[in-house]
């Protein structure tokens, strides 16, 4: 019996996934380093950084949504052997990223104080001061981050994930070194952490831009200033990017509403939630890396109308997410108290954080892959409207509605926020599993 040949070899997959997992870790390390290193300045500083990260993640999600839209279009053109259209799509993705990020920064920068007051009204003056100090340099960094996100998405589409990992190494070195200098030596606290993040994002954007200008790149962006600005290609990118952006925006607006609920529980609750959020991020490092690979692999298979391999790689990559998450969560679960102690929380806050963080690791191992890996397969084939419906419904009924019910009606504390989130994961994961199994996605086309 002849052995079935698949579009990607095991070596191809390993070469793509391993750097992406490392890159995912390094990307998270920037925010994690800000939180841990600024913890020397007290719980108010940790809370201030956490509040900004909550808002920032909403905007970053929008940038990543358009980058994903571009990556899906480019991957399918590459799979279909249309390299000219792939390069033109790459240039138009850069145009979109620059325009949207500059507009966002210009609008938010002058009203940042009012935005923080509107979203997190019941916070102390000390937390508010730390929030503003960190927010300004982070806002200035958005255009650089948006272009960097687009360029790394394009690199993943052409299977060059190793270099995105190396650029992340450089960015983290700049960020951590900058934190050490500006927080510890200069005493700038959260402002220093924000400036270090800004410097790392400028450097990452500059290096990726230089690399993608190389003539030897299959997706080189030479002639960027000459155009053409293609409404046809932009429409294709936006067809994926807008629903993905709305889905991500709804997700993070819900998180911001929940964060406002947490802020009413006090500074200690905000700090505990920030630590649990970092545990959630640690746990999903390998899954996020594999999820990014899903876009490239499934997108190129769909570009060749290779439905058999779309199904095969969906099962394979989802299985890898489960295995990788188990492997990283076992040591995290065993050493959770020691890790939590690094954050400089009060003893009572540490005691409250341990069970919350431990349960988070269990839920990430069992239900997170269904809720966050399967939708990347659906994005890669263009089935984005269903994702928008599922995530929007689940977020507002379970994560937001459930959290407010448990806190306001049942009188529960910060742990209720996480219980509501697990209900959200369970519901949306069930919907995605049903959609993938049903096969309706086979009717969707991007190019």
From TrEMBL:
Keywords noted in UniProt: Antiport, Cell membrane, Ion transport, Membrane, Transmembrane, Transmembrane helix, Transport
Membrane topology annotation: Multi-pass membrane protein
One Gene Ontology MF term: xenobiotic transmembrane transporter activity
Domain of life, source organism: Bacteria
Keyword Electron transport: no
Membrane spanning residue stretches: 12-38, 58-80, 92-113, 133-154, 166-185, 191-212, 316-340, 352-374, 386-410, 416-434
Subcellular location field: Cell membrane
Listed CDD domains: MATE_NorM_like
GO CC annotation: plasma membrane
GO BP annotation list: monoatomic ion transport
Pfam family membership, one: MatE
Full protein name: Multidrug-efflux transporter
Organism: Candidatus Ornithospirochaeta stercoravium
Source lineage: Bacteria, Pseudomonadati, Spirochaetota, Spirochaetia, Spirochaetales
């Amino acid at each position: 019996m002849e052995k079935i040949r698949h579009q990607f070899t095991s070596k191809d997959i390993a070469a793509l996934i391993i750097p992406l997992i490392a890159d995912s870790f390094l990307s998270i390390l920037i925010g994690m380093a800000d939180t841990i290193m600024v913890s020397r300045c007290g719980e108010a500083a940790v809370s201030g950084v956490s509040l900004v990260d909550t808002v920032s993640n909403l905007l970053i999600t929008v940038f990543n949504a358009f980058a994903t839209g571009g990556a899906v279009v480019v991957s399918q053109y590459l799979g279909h052997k249309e390299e000219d259209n792939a390069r033109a799509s790459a240039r138009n993705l850069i145009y979109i990223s620059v325009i949207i990020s500059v507009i966002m920064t210009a609008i938010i920068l002058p009203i940042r104080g009012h935005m923080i007051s509107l979203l997190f009204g019941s916070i102390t003056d000390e937390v508010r001061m730390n929030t503003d100090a960190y927010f300004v340099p982070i806002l200035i960094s958005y255009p650089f981050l948006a272009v960097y996100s687009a360029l790394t998405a394009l690199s993943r589409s052409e299977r060059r994930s190793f270099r995105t990992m190396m650029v992340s190494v450089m960015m983290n070195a700049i960020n951590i070194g900058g934190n050490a200098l500006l927080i510890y030596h200069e005493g700038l606290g959260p402002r220093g952490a924000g400036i270090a993040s800004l410097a790392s994002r400028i450097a990452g954007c500059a290096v990726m831009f230089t690399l993608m200008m190389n003539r030897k790149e299959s997706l080189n962006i030479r002639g960027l200033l000459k155009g053409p600005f293609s409404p046809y290609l932009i429409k294709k990118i936006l067809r994926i990017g807008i629903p993905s952006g709305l889905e991500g925006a709804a997700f993070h607006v819900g998180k911001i509403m929940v964060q406002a609920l947490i802020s009413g529980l006090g500074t200690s609750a905000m700090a505990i939630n920030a630590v649990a959020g970092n545990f959630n991020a640690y746990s999903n490092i390998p899954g996020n890396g594999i999820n990014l690979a899903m876009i490239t692999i499934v997108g190129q298979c769909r570009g060749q109308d290779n439905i058999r391999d779309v199904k095969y790689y969906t099962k394979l990559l989802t299985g890898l997410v489960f295995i990788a998450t188990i492997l990283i969560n076992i040591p995290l679960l065993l050493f959770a108290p020691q890790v939590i102690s690094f954050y400089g929380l009060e003893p009572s806050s540490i005691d409250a954080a341990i069970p919350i963080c431990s349960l988070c690791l269990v839920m990430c191992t069992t239900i997170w892959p269904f809720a966050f890996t399967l939708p990347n397969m659906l994005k890669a084939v263009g089935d984005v409207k269903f994702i928008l419906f599922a995530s929007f419904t689940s977020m507002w009924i379970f994560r937001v509605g459930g959290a407010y019910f448990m806190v306001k009606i049942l009188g529960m504390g910060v742990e209720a926020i996480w219980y509501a989130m697990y209900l959200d994961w369970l519901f949306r994961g069930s919907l995605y599993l049903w959609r993938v199994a049903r096969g309706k996605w086979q009717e969707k086309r991007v190019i």
